[in-house]
Amino acid sequence: MQSVSLIIQIFIVIAFGYFLGPKLSLNIRQFIFKILPYFSYILLTSVALELTLALDQINNPSTILPPALLIAFTTSFGSFFTCLIAYAIFDKESVKGKISLQLFINALKNIAKAFLALTVGIILGILFTRLNIHISFNSWYLLLVFIFLIGIELAFTHFNRTWLSWKILIVPLAAFIGSCIAGFLNYFLLGNHFTLNEMLALAQGYGWYSMSGILFTQLHSAELGGIALLTDLFREIVAILLMYTMGWRFPRPAISSAGATSMDVTLAMVKQSCGTHYVPHAMMSGLLLSLLAPLLITVFLNF
Predict the structure, then answer these.
(1) Per the confidence metrics, is the pTM higher than 0.85?
(2) What is the Cα–Cα distance from 160 to 188, expressed in whole angstroms?
(3) Cβ neighbours of residue 143 under 8 Å, at least 6 residues apart?
(4) N or C: which end of the chain has fewer CB within 10 A?
(5) Residue 18: what are its φ and ψ, rounded to 5°?
């Protein structure tokens, strides 16, 4: 029920922005379009801060960091390359970004800004920890503000039939298949410590750490809950880095690697790195994976 509630909130907010947008004055719209790109860096800082605070709250994080990092990298890259191959087979006419010097320079600038935002978040988290400052940080409301602004921008975006194409479904399907392949690979690498169903279940979080950490703790153990939390936090960060480095050239695979987060946190990066044209791909993929993630985790854990 929590996943349904969050999804409903997202669609209400984006719909409100979409229908309100045309009624705003030109000056307000221009101001919104000007500040919108900066929200992606604010969200990056919040993600890094949450990660740092989460590490401080987990018992013996050094024992769960290696598997979490491994699962995060393999599932993110598994989704990316599965989607890349799928579109090469089923949609050879799919649009790829053009390589140019200016685009390459812009990509490097975005990467540098992204790393700076992540660094700021980590430093803030370390300072809060060292100074023994306990805060209950939740970036959800900040995220809703950003999605509201995205809705306003979508009101002035030209729609076309390709946004409703079945080929969009390749993005979330590739995320599922790529994550399952990564789950099998991780089982062979970590089989001495985890069962196959545990590895497959850990691959189904799709970056939604606030859900997966709680669900694994309730259904299995606190240890697996901690691994799930860090896995999906790292998976979100890996997806963000892929978005900035490869999104301008391979937008759909980058969105696939973002998993469930393409509908919320990484939506800012989709718009910035892949272009507004791919926002519907991100929304559809994120919606389906957000709905499926709790179900798939439960099914694999009880398989």
Answers:
(1) no
(2) 45
(3) 43, 264, 265
(4) N
(5) -65, -45
